[in-house]
Write a structure and sequence with these properties.
GO terms for molecular function: ATP binding. There is one protein chain. This protein is about 40% helix and about 25% strand. With about 675 residues, it is an alpha+beta fold. It has 5 domains: about 140 residues, Beta-Lactamase (2-Layer Sandwich), CATH 3.30.450; about 140 residues, PAS domain (Beta-Lactamase, 2-Layer Sandwich), CATH 3.30.450.20; about 70 residues, Signal transduction histidine kinase, dimerisation/phosphotransfer (DHp) domain (Helix Hairpins), CATH 1.10.287; about 150 residues, Histidine kinase-like ATPase, C-terminal domain (Heat Shock Protein 90, 2-Layer Sandwich), CATH 3.30.565.10; about 120 residues, 3-Layer(aba) Sandwich (Rossmann fold). A hairpin with a 5-residue loop joins strand 4 and strand 5. Helix 7 packs antiparallel against helix 8. The chain is elongated and about 125 Å long. The chain starts with a helix and ends in a 9-residue tail after the last helix. The C terminus is likely disordered.
Length: about 675
């Protein structure tokens, strides 16, 4: 028979943690072995004679800490079923004390078995609890589960630890190296070989790391300097130094491969005595991320430049508008000077409206809110309309224009307004960046599948970098301080987006600075057949009829309201003006206007609610309600129409459109066409 002292020695020195508990729910510790005390940092005096759950309480601040409750349940099941109960991979954080005195909970995982112990009379006398600290194993498995599915599958199917390690290392998308204590490389994975080339050397020591070529790319003062052999993360980790991350541009041994930027980390592998017997190196390819970050920095710079340009471009027309307003305030008596001043204001407002429209167009296209009205078009007529729009700027700069077109129609399927906008932007771009007296050539060419429009100029040309970025938002050629070219740098970006919506393409080319530029628009060709493309006559202006309308203008901006009133009166109609919604409701009830122009951004109640109330009043139930607003988004229009508006005008109100509307209402002919 074994000596009891021998049993005690085996228990105390067993390589797996163990303790003996009373067969009661409070589980008082009767005995505990050495390895368990070592794993938990407890002393025998702290444990023996106390409830296990008093020694190892749950973390009150961790709602996910179910270790104590699971262990309690297992012990109760042991007592009730008189059978062993196992808790595989149970999370059970343990309370630790920091040297400064404060306590904290350290996450730990345990593989535990609770075994009932019976005496000769089959009475349950104690519970024998064995536990193995598998914290590192669980954490390693968690890390593996985050890697690619191939790695997890390889790990689960591996038959041996070495085989599993090799499979996982080879499957992860991060370059991995395993070395021994001298720095000799024992194992690499496919991602590492992809970075460095299949024929990379296998050094026998840290001294051989000089064969590996890399330069620092961390943005520090050592940026661009060669990485010395002793500075590679693996070499530092073998010396016991921390090597958590190093950003290095590496030069592969296969010189056909491009240089890559890697984030390299290394960690020493230590034995039980804390001696380093190897190192693990991870190299993450961050080349694309570095390029993306640089792209973001460039985009940020372009954004700042754009904001400065936007301020400049908006201030430019404000200067003559302000001066014209001052002149009008002086009470000019010369009709010619009044007409000239009015023309200046109109031109500058049109210029500002164009800038804002370009911004809104880019936003709508980017968010997929542009709706194309597709039809069969002769692209030659589209080019003609674009030339008509841009001819003033071309002639103002003294350019010579040559247009060459093939015989017969050049039929495409597209949105006439948007395609005219595309070609006009290309022509305007050529005119702006061509010095006075230059040449602009427009060529239309056909092939069986496509219609091409090529715009050539003899302007300032483009660098290779600018050609590559020509269609990016806010990208422009370098300007002089006087900003003579003008614009916001969004025209070509808008062109590219609109062309893509037409299943076409647009490209830029240049032989270099000072040698002109060439932009080529390519659209799918449609068989002309027997149909001809539709002609689009300019809209016919309808003068006001004999009936004089009462038009109610509601706007809390007194200046904007006054200008609308003046325009309405000039058109021969009676204008009423109110600046608050409640006063407008009362005025409408008394005056019974046929037309109401309502600003949407009113105080107290907004324009949509005012429209609903006007519709509810018998006196204005059938009046024509027109929303007047600075918002032009589709959902804003939809909300206004749902509130009862008949029309939606975006500020600034087009005088001819308003005149046409009032003429139609006065004549009582049909339904007015909805404004765009």
């Amino acid at each position: 028979m074994f000596d009891p002292a021998l049993f005690e020695s085996i228990f105390l020195r067993a390589p797996i943690g163990a303790y003996v508990l009373t067969p009661t729910p409070d589980a008082v510790v009767l005995a505990v072995n050495d390895i368990f005390l070592q794993n938990t940092g407890r002393t025998r005096e702290e444990m023996v004679g106390r409830s296990l759950f008093e020694v190892f309480p749950a973390d009150p601040d961790d709602p996910a800490d179910d270790g104590e409750s699971m262990l309690r349940s297992a012990i109760v099941r042991v007592i009730e079923t008189r059978t062993p109960q196992r808790l595989p991979a149970q999370r059970y954080p343990i309370e630790k004390r920091h040297p400064d005195g404060h306590t904290y909970f350290e996450e730990r995982f345990w593989d535990a078995v609770n075994t009932p112990i019976f005496d000769r009379e089959d009475r349950l006398v104690c519970i024998f609890h064995t536990t193995n600290d598998i914290t590192r194993q669980v954490q390693a498995e968690t890390a593996l589960r985050r890697s690619e599915q191939e790695a997890r599958e390889a790990a689960r199917q591996a038959e041996a630890e070495r085989r599993r390690l090799e499979a996982v290392v080879d499957a992860v998308p991060v370059g991995m190296i395993l070395s021994d204590a001298q720095g000799r490389i024992l194992l690499t994975n496919s991602a590492h070989r992809e970075l460095w080339g299949e024929q990379h050397p296998y050094p026998d020591s840290v001294a051989d790391y000089r064969e590996w070529s890399g330069r620092w790319a961390d943005g520090s003062e050592r940026q661009g300097q060669p990485v010395e052999p002793a500075d590679w993360p693996a070499a530092r980790a073998l010396l016991g130094e921390p090597a958590p991350r190093a950003i290095i541009e590496i030069e592969p041994f296969d010189h056909s491969r491009p240089r890559r930027t890697v984030l390299s980390s290394a960690a020493a592998v230590r034995d039980a005595e804390h001696r380093i017997f190897g190192v693990v190196v991870a190299q993450l390819d961050i080349t694309d991320r570095v390029k993306a970050e640089e792209g973001l920095r460039q985009a940020d710079r372009r954004k700042d430049e754009f904001l400065a340009m936007l301020a400049h471009e908006l201030r430019n027309p404000l200067a003559p508008i302000g001066a014209a307003a001052d002149l009008l305030a002086l009470g000019l008596s010369d009709p010619a000077r009044v007409q000239q001043t009015s023309s200046i204001i109109a031109r500058q407002v049109k210029h500002m409206t164009g800038l804002i429209d370009d911004l809104l167009d880019v936003s709508r296209v980017t968010r997929g809110l542009i709706r194309l009205e597709l039809e069969r078009l002769d692209l030659k007529r589209v080019v003609a309309e674009a030339l008509e729009q841009t001819r003033p700027v071309i002639e103002a700069r003294g350019h010579r224009l040559l247009v060459r077109t093939p015989p017969g129609p050049a039929i495409v399927r597209g949105d006439r307004k948007r395609l005219v906008q595309v070609v006009a932007n290309l022509l305007t771009n050529a005119a702006k960046y061509t010095p006075t007296g230059g040449d602009i050539t427009v060529d239309i060419a056909l092939d069986p599948e496509h219609v091409k429009v090529e715009v050539n100029d003899t302007g300032i040309g483009m660098t290779t970098d600018l050609v590559e970025n020509a269609f990016k938002l806010f990208s422009q050629a370098e300007r002089t301080a006087d900003r003579s070219q003008g614009g916001l740098g969004i025209g070509l970006a808008l062109v590219e987006r609109l062309v893509k919506l037409h299943d076409g393409s647009v490209s830029a080319a240049s032989d270099g600075p000072g040698r002109g530029s060439r932009f080529t628009l390519c659209l799918p060709r449609v068989d002309a057949g027997t149909d001809t493309a539709q002609e689009h006559a300019p809209p016919h202006f309808q003068a006001a009829g004999e009936n004089v309308l009462k038009v109610l203008v509601v706007d809390d901006n007194h200046d904007a309201a006054e200008m609308l009133v003046m325009l309405i009166q000039t058109l021969g109609h009676a204008a009423l003006v109110e600046h608050t919604p409640l006063s407008a409701l009362e005025r409408a009830r008394v005056e019974k206007p046929e037309v109401c122009l309502l600003d949407l951004g009113l105080p107290d109640i907004d324009g949509t609610e005012l429209a609903r109330r006007l519709r509810a009043q018998p006196e204005t139930a059938t009046a024509t309600l027109v929303a007047v607003t600075g918002y032009g988004r589709d959902h804003d229009r939809a909300a206004a129409m749902a509130a009862g508006f008949d029309l939606y005008f975006v500020k600034p109100v087009d005088g001819s459109r308003l005149a046409e509307l009032l003429a139609q209402v006065a004549a009582r002919e049909g339904s007015p066409v909805r404004a765009e």
